[in-house]
Write a structure and sequence with these properties.
- This protein is of the alpha/beta class and 430 residues long.
- It folds into 2 domains: 241 residues, FAD/NAD(P)-binding domain (3-Layer(bba) Sandwich); 138 residues, 3-Layer(bba) Sandwich (FAD/NAD(P)-binding domain), CATH 3.50.50.
- It has a 5-stranded parallel β-sheet, covered by helices on one side.
- Helix 3 crosses helix 11.
- The longest helix has 23 residues.
Length: 430
């Protein structure tokens, strides 16, 4: 725990999701023009937590920015578990690009980048157009390792949803749960590290259990996990026991949790020790950097993209920056909040580089809230810095929710989740 109170820390970090020295990104366009930023053109690929943030803050620094994003609306993965559990509607987690375009002056192009020419500093779009850039920011999120589990390909996800990209898959999983008969088993297959949103599978299991408790009390939740430990494990397990009794069973990898194959026709998953048949099966596949990052040769043998932690410039292709889930960002988790923080650091670095100035030393923050139940919230927070080992967490800078906490405390943290979401989405798309 930090020397300030945990509650104060969360109030401080629960807002803009920013890093330290970002005042320069609030400079006027006139000031930026005077210092030579206005003539440069930065293209940002991907309009999620990382890309949209970076585009907005680059524009605030007076830089010409084009944001390329295929979708006209962005449905957030944060809070999508609440949709699955029946606590939210999908329209409440759907963000518009209107403010970025009309309020902040970002040029938003709804298209798909099909190729990146690093040497020629250009991107080719599905529409056939080509855009030149002075610097490129790539923030495409994640892609799935289809068939890493035998029988689980993209077609299989129409029967066993992953729901790890929010949208139609979220609604499909919700529909399956609603249609499921009471007494059935919901099976979740959780992936090995690294993957997007480390606490996400366990929050989802919690939301499904909450729905079952209200509407299908004879049903069970079975988590088959490739890992032997997971984020906020002690807090989740305590919450599960308190709220749901024996409804949720977690099987670690070492005890048969690793799944090698699935059968969509029988809704069966094959573990190392047993076969399990579910009424609804949710498979969260192993993940890599987004398709365009892989295609452009920005990833290494890990499947993710090595970057300079000070600037997020690719270690493989100069002039290209990779942020968010696709990047290798040291101790920072693959989360929306981390992507938001990385984006601001990246924007700050690009603004300095375009002006020929030294890149400022920055720090990063991450805060992650999870619901175990509608009035039972838990969280983890940390502050990170750049060291000779890359991005590392500052000792005693954050922490997790107290293990022994009152019902009132858990309820307050549950309320904080709403404030966190409203704040970060306003910071990005507002």
């Amino acid at each position: 725990m930090s020397r300030i109170t945990r509650r104060d820390f969360l109030k401080l970090t629960g807002g803009a999701g920013a890093a330290s020295a970002l005042g320069m990104l609030g400079v006027s366009s006139a000031h930026a023009a005077k210092h030579g930023n206005m003539g440069a053109h930065v293209v940002v690929v991907g309009g999620g937590f990382g890309g949209a943030t970076c585009a907005k803050y680059l524009k605030r620094a007076g830089i010409n920015v084009t944001l390329i994003e295929p979708s006209t609306k962005f449905i957030t993965c944060p809070f999508s578990n609440y949709v699955i559990g029946g606590l939210q509607k999908i329209d409440t987690i759907t963000q518009s690009y209107d403010a970025l375009k009309k309020k902040h002056g970002v040029a938003v192009v709804h298209d798909t980048v099909t190729a990146i020419d690093a040497a020629g500093k250009s991107v080719k779009l599905k529409s056939g157009k080509t855009l030149k850039y002075d610097r490129l920011v790539v923030s495409p999120g994640i892609e799935f390792k289809w068939n890493a589990i035998k029988g689980y390909d993209e077609k299989a996800s129409n029967v066993m949803p992953h729901a790890w990209k929010a949208g139609p898959q979220t609604l499909l999983l919700r529909k399956q749960l609603v249609a499921m008969k009471d007494g059935g088993t919901f099976i979740m297959v959780a992936p090995a590290n690294p993957f997007r949103c480390p606490p996400g599978p366990y929050e989802r299991a919690s939301m499904v259990a909450h729905y079952f408790k209200q509407h299908k009390p004879k049903s069970k939740v079975l988590i088959l996990d490739a890992k032997d430990a997971f984020s906020k494990q002690g807090l989740f397990v305590d919450g599960w026991k308190k709220l749901y009794g024996d409804m949720i069973t977690w099987v670690p990898g070492a005890k048969g949790g690793k799944v090698s194959a699935v059968d969509t026709k029988t809704l069966t998953v094959m573990g190392e020790l047993d076969k399990h048949k579910g009424a609804v099966v949710n498979v969260i596949p192993a993940q890599t950097a987004g398709v365009i990052a892989i295609k452009a040769g920005l990833a290494n043998e890990t499947g993710f993209c090595p970057v300079d932690p000070k600037t997020f410039e690719s270690k493989i292709h100069k002039g290209i920056h990779v942020i968010g889930d696709s990047s290798i960002a040291g101790a920072l988790p693959k989360s929306g909040f981390a992507a938001n923080s990385e984006a601001k650091i990246c924007a700050s670095a690009i603004a300095a580089m375009l002006k020929g100035e030294p890149v400022p030393e920055e720090s990063f923050v991450n805060t992650c809230y999870s619901l175990v139940g509608p009035t039972y919230g838990i969280s983890v927070a940390g502050v990170y810095r750049i060291s000779d080992k890359g991005i590392t967490e500052i000792p005693n800078s954050g922490g997790v929710s107290p293990k022994e906490a009152t019902d009132a405390f858990r309820a307050e943290e549950a309320k904080y989740t709403l404030g966190w979401y409203a704040s970060i989405t306003a910071d990005i798309w507002g």
